[in-house]
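Q: I'm writing a short explainer about CAAX amino terminal protease for a general audience and would like to include a description of its predicted shape. Could you first generate the structure from this sequence?
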Amino acid sequence: MRLLKQLGTVFVITLVGSQAIAAVEGSWLLTLLLGALTAGLALAGYAWVVRRTERRAPTEVGRAGAGSATGRGVLLGVLMFGVVIACIALTGGYRVEGWGSATVALGLIGFTAATAVTEELAFRGVLFRVVEERAGTWGALALTAVLFGAMHLANPDATVWGAVAIAIEAGGMLGAAYAATRTLWLPIGLHAGWNFAAAGIFGTEVSGSDAPQGLLEGVMSGPVLLSGGAFGPEGSLFAVLAGAALTVVFLRLARRRGRIVPARRRADRTPVTTSV
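A: Of course. Here's the predicted structure. Afterward I'll give you a sentence or two in plain language.
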C-alpha cells in the first residue's frame, strides 16, 4: 500500500506535468517554467506522501546540501556525456552540422529537470528504497536497473540493446549514486546533466525519444555499437563503459561508508507470534 501511494503520487504529478509541457510545445519560456514547476511539485508531493505513509522526515530530499549535491551531479553528468560524445566523434560517429537554438536549449532545462526529478523519485526514491528493505542493496540495484531500462522500450526509436544499455549505464549508476549518498540530489543532478548535455548542448537523441535539438545540430552515423544509432549515444558502447565505471566507483564509496544494506533472511521476514 505504501508503495502504491508513493508511486501513485509521483505518477499523477508526472502525468499532469508532462501533458502541460506537451501542450505548450514550441514555447521555450513556458516549457522552462512548466518543467521547473513540475519538478518542484513532484518533490513536494513526494515529501508529503513519505511523511504520511512512513511517519518520518524525507531526508533523501532534505534541503541540507541539496544545491551543492545537485550541482556536482549536473557537472558530472555533463562531463560524462562530453567524454562519451568525444569518443564517438573520434570514431567518426558524431559530427556537428551547424548551430541550433539557444532558446530551445533554455526550454530543455525545464524539460530535463522535470524528467530527472520525476524519474529519480519513482525509481530511486520509491522503488529502490522499498525493494532494498527486503532484497538489500544488490537486489534493489538489479531490479530497479532492469525496470529503468525496460521503461525506455516505450520510446519511439527504442531497441532492446538500447534498453539493456540504459539498464547498465544509467539504472546501475544512478542507483549506486543513491546508495553512496543516501540522498536523491546527486542522482537527480547526474540524470539532468546527462540529458541536457545530450539534447540541449550536443543536439543528439535521448534514449530513442524525439527530443528537440539545442545549441548544436548533431548528426549520428556509423556502427550502432559505437554511435548508438537512432537510439542516441546512450546506446553506444562508450556510454555503457562510462556508466559501468561510475557505478563501480559509487558502489565502492557506498561500501566504504557502510551503506550497503544486506538482504533480509527468510527468518527475519517471519512475523513473530506470541501465545497467551
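A: For your explainer, you could say: The longest strand covers residues 94-99.
Q: Perfect, that's easy to follow.
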